[in-house]
Specification:
This protein has 139 residues and is α/β, with parallel strands linked by helices. It contains seven helices and four strands; from the N terminus they run βαααβαββααα. A four-stranded parallel sheet has the order 3-2-1-4, with no helix packed on it. The longest helix has 10 residues.
Length: 139
């Protein structure tokens, strides 16, 4: 049986930012809805109300057991750390790969300055934009 800690802040930590325990705590309940408790446990210090756990069980009949510590914790959200993890989660890498494979990306740029962004916006026919940080929490 595997013991998992929720690390929703995975992308943040890849970019060198400090871990965000509050973000992980706020979203760790997703683990209870999605994972099979016959195969894993949730490492948490959060105390879940029995009524809430019973509600989750109507959606996920095999909710994971909540434990407070583990001798072999695993990351749940992002399991690949280090340089490989940064590369696989990089929006710049994804953008360049799609362009290289000619798989079609939405019109966009990888800006190196605020001026690059202003120029792109001023020269774009479409005025709907999505701005993303390279290694941050985004879709």
């Amino acid at each position: 049986m595997e013991d998992y800690k929720v690390n929703i802040d995975y992308e943040q930590t890849l970019s060198g930012a400090s871990p965000s325990p509050s973000l992980n705590k706020e979203l760790e309940h997703l683990f209870l809805f999605t994972e099979d408790g016959r195969q894993c446990n949730l490492i948490t210090h959060q105390k879940y109300d029995n009524d809430y756990l019973e509600f989750i069980q109507t959606i996920n009949p095999h909710i994971p057991k909540c434990i407070s510590h583990s001798s072999s914790p695993r990351n749940w959200w992002g399991r690949e750390m280090g340089e490989k993890g940064r590369l696989l989660n990089s929006k710049i890498f994804s953008f360049n790969l799609l362009e290289h494979l000619k798989k079609g990306t939405l019109p966009g740029i990888i800006p190196l300055s605020l001026n690059d962004i202003k120029t792109f916006i001023n020269n774009s026919e479409d005025q709907n934009f999505v701005l993303k940080s390279d290694l941050s929490f985004s879709g």
